[in-house]
Design a protein that fits this description.
Elements: H1 2-29, E1 46-55, E2 60-70, E3 77-79, E4 91-93, H2 99-135
Antiparallel strand pairs: 1-2, 3-4
Helix pairs in contact: 1-2
Length: 136
């Protein structure tokens, strides 16, 4: 039944975007997490990779989060000689998390999740309507 496929595709999309939202939340929560000792690496921003996969039971392509990786790049430094993680020059390496990028990712994931939820609700309503018609 095509409606079952629509439910499966929407559910897979919601699961993938849930993973993305969790990673964004982790990045935002750790944007101030420095190393504990001089020279120690601070928190490194995490990223999510997506891929399509064939759902053999439904016979459709769905999306899934395939890998949670880390973002490459240098760590920004700021001057704070009193910090426990400050190096000999007084600089502390800070996470490579940009709040603006994280908020944009969060909005995109939120909208994708909402779109999949709308499809799920519409499909459910169509199934319920079909059941109601069969009862009459």
């Amino acid at each position: 039944m095509d409606l079952e496929r629509a439910l499966g595709v929407s559910a897979a999309g919601m699961a993938a975007q849930s993973t993305r939202l969790r990673v964004v939340a982790e990045n935002v929560a750790n944007r101030d997490s420095t190393g504990e000792t001089p020279g120690a690496d601070p928190y490194r921003r995490k990223t999510v990779s997506f891929a399509s996969r064939l759902d053999r039971a439904l016979g459709v392509e769905t999306v899934r989060a395939t890998r949670i990786g880390t973002a490459a790049g240098d760590f920004p430094e700021h001057y704070d000689p009193g910090h426990p993680a400050a190096d000999a020059r007084g600089y502390v390496r800070t996470p490579n998390v940009d709040s603006l990028v994280e908020m944009a990712d969060m909005r995109e994931a939120q909208r994708s999740y909402g779109a999949n939820l709308s499809v799920l609700e519409t499909t459910r309503a169509m199934i319920q309507r079909a059941i109601d018609l069969l009862k009459s």
